[in-house]
Amino acid sequence: MSLPNIAVIGCGYWGKNHVRNFEALGALKLVCDASETGRLKAKELAPNVEVSDDPLSAFKRADIDGVVLATPAETHCSLTLLALEHGKHVLVEKPMALTYSEALKMADAADQHERVLMVGHLLEYHAAFLEIKRLIAEGALGKLQYIYSHRLNFGKIRVEENALWSFAPHDIALILRLTGQPPLEATCVGGNYITPNLADVTTSTMLFSGGVRAHIFVNWLNPFKEQKLVIIGDKKMAVFNDTEPVEKLVIYDQHVEFDGRLPVLAKAEREVIQLPESEPLRAECSEFLDCIATGRKPLTDARSGVDVLRVLQACQVSLQLNGRPTALSDIH
To answer: What dihedral angle (degrees, nearest 10) is formed by the CA atoms of 170, 172, 175, 178?
Structure first.
């Protein structure tokens, strides 16, 4: 089976990583970037690849099977719809779109044209997260009680979307995957300090049926980088710390027991989980190629992207209402 031919649209901050990976996988045919800097970077990473300054040129070529959109978020909807209309499969970076209604339109178009539409929720392909899913499925952590994530850094500051839409999609995707359901409601508070009406810091909370709660803290004005996901079960606790070079996943054998009516903390040794050497983006790119070739649904398909956008939209509404809880059922 021959590999699909891929065009990467955008060879900037993140697009260059797609160029590197699809070149290594032997599927890269074309890189489109309006800037000379981007085209030179593409040639540096893939000397034999074709380059173009016209992103639309990829959509018109019969020898291109799929396109990767690593462009500014405000272009994702229009470019995805155009690519699908030209019969291309699409891998679009997060956030999938900047409104829930745009995401629905994109997912419906993918169904209509019978094409793969995949969203770049990268961390769902991370070995640490895959192991967490396995542990939860086999009951090792017990009943889920609470999940929180911190995604903090100094930059990259954007002017098209706020920190919530730029940083939180990954964490929302992970939390939805672990809970297996949308939240009943979401709340969000934050502050803007650089661009008026564009939040640089937000804290979002979610309430799920069964009493599970989650919170997400994002901040692009933080003095240090932190990317941490903590899962609290009634048997054990898991910490996925992606900034740790070695100990990325640690399991804590800690829970609460009762002596009569008195809660007692039970502690045992922590366990560092050994993970296979793998690059999440390589796995994501391989998934896109395989889904094009076989027609199967990707892990991070369009509908999972729509679910993430619905939660983001609820958080945005709550943010604009100064933290008033917003029911997911109110997001249409």
So the answer is: -70
At 138 the three-state DSSP class reads coil
DSSP-assigned states of every residue in 247-280: --EEEEEEEEEEETTEEEEEEEEEEEPP-----H
Tell me the whole-structure pTM to 2 decimals.
Answer: 0.94
Burial of 305 (0-12, 13-18, 19+ CB in 10 A): buried
Q: What is the pLDDT along the chain (332 residues), one digit of tens a residue?
A: 689 999 999 999 999 999 999 999 999 999 999 999 999 999 999 999 999 999 888 999 999 999 999 999 999 999 999 999 999 999 999 999 999 999 999 999 999 999 999 999 999 999 999 999 999 999 999 999 999 999 999 988 888 889 999 999 999 999 999 999 999 999 999 999 999 999 999 999 999 999 999 999 999 999 999 999 999 999 999 999 999 999 999 999 987 878 778 887 878 889 999 999 899 999 999 999 999 999 999 999 999 999 999 999 999 999 999 999 999 999 98
The phi, psi pair for 171, rounded to 5°, reads -70, -40
Instruction: For residue 298, give the DSSP letter.
Output: P
Tokens of 270: 């922590």
Query: Phi, psi at residue 307, to the nearest 5°?
Result: -60, -40
